[in-house]
Amino acid sequence: MNDRYQSPLSERYASREMQYIFSPDKKFKTWRKLWIALAETEKELGLPITQEQIDELKAHGEDINYEVAREREKLVRHDVMSHVYAYGQQCPGAKGIIHLGATSCYVGDNTDIIIMTDGLKLVRKKLINVMAELAKFADKYKDQPTLAFTHFQPAQPTTVGKRAALWLHDLYLDLEDLDYVLSSMKLLGSKGTTGTQASFLELFDGDHEKCRKADEMIAAKMGFDSCYPVSGQTYSRKIDTRVVNVLAGIAQSAHKFSNDVRLLQHLKEVEEPFEKNQIGSSAMAYKRNPMRSERIASLANYVMADVMNPMLVSSTQWFERTLDDSANKRLSVPEGFLAIDGILDLYLNVVDGLVVYPKVIEKHFMAELPFMATENIMMDAVKAGGDRQELHEKIRQLSMEAGKNVKEKGQDNNLLELIAADPAFGLSMEELAKTMEPRRYVGRAPEQVQEFLEEVIGPVLRENQEILGMKAEITV
């Protein structure tokens, strides 16, 4: 196999579970389930199909004779009719009623909906497990003060847990979108060659109610509530856009998380897991590169770019059906799912092993805190009888001087010493030191995290307890 292209999505990134959902075996077994559901429905609605024929179809629903189908497709150049032929070879008694009244999209499009639905369910499971791990992390570090950044410049402090709550909130929004799309998934049903159900109206001798009933029954047999009410030969390709948009939303959130982790790792405040024998660089033996987070970003870019594929397909379909969607769909939809599957495994692996360095965080925090404490210092000086406007100008000047010492001379931040030496403030170093308690400056960050976890995330995790507890293994 080393002499031909192999997709990294299968070899390096996606789980076996997601790979199976988009495998030929899953696809063709679903085709046979749909043919069985169609035959059962037609029998139950009065067509001359026997139970023996149904039983024969069911007996060979799983043991697909792939070689027969492959040889037939070489001859007829039609994948659906090749599998109809192969199924008929195994079921001679039922051969004449397989695919009765249907067009290729009956199996093709209904299967696509079923597979995407199964894929979304697996994505949902992994997403909620990532959320559960992030919730634990946010709760553990909700009280740990840290510098916040706007424009990647030190800003009013937050906590490590509050920052994790921001990552978690993004995933919560993704879950809302995913649940909406998942709840709206419907089958194409049995709509015929242009969506008019003309062939089924003919089969049922003009009985419109039986045509409507056929869609309902097939949907129920395949585990769906209903079918789309109108269609051309295919379901609207906007459905694919909806689905891949959900995947891209998760990719956006994961990319944001990976960016933050990489920046924090540069600051040596937080690190992704690094295995005992892992090599960070072929040249620089000391390196601890954030390769998992970088891989998340790389795959996320791919998924976000992938959204253009179903958008272009959907917008350029002609009337009731053209086939210029087929090759694109075979690539863009499965690969979007395989990539997001790999992203979520990486995300879970990183969060599960995030390492926090409180001493480094505190060092960075304390180096900047004198600047951030100036408002409190000024208020204390005003209470002691100082002039607010005069003190504001003095603090501005002293802050510039301290900043110059840090940037140009490489010295420590000496703003507190400069303030203590200025008689206008009337404050000693001991008094100023009391303003240097980090927790005074994080506002409601700890309480916000607690409230968010209890009121928003907690109910989600309790409702989905049965799917929690996943662990992610990454291939390379």
Tell me what you see in this structure:
- This protein has 476 residues and is mainly α.
- The chain is built from 20 helices and four strands.
- The protein has helices at 8-13, 16-21, 24-44, 51-59, 66-76, 79-90, 104-140, 160-184, 198-203, 208-221, 238-267, 291-306, 308-315, 326-352, 358-372, 374-383, 388-409, 415-420, 429-433, 445-463, and strands at 145-150, 153-159, 270-271, 355-356.
- Strands 1-2 form a two-stranded antiparallel ribbon.
- Helix 11 runs antiparallel to helix 13 (308-315), helix 11 packs parallel to helix 14 (326-352) and helix 12 runs antiparallel to helix 14 (326-352).
- The longest helix is centred in the N-terminal third of the chain and has 37 residues, at 104-140.
- It is elongated.
- Mean pLDDT is 92; it is low at 281-287.
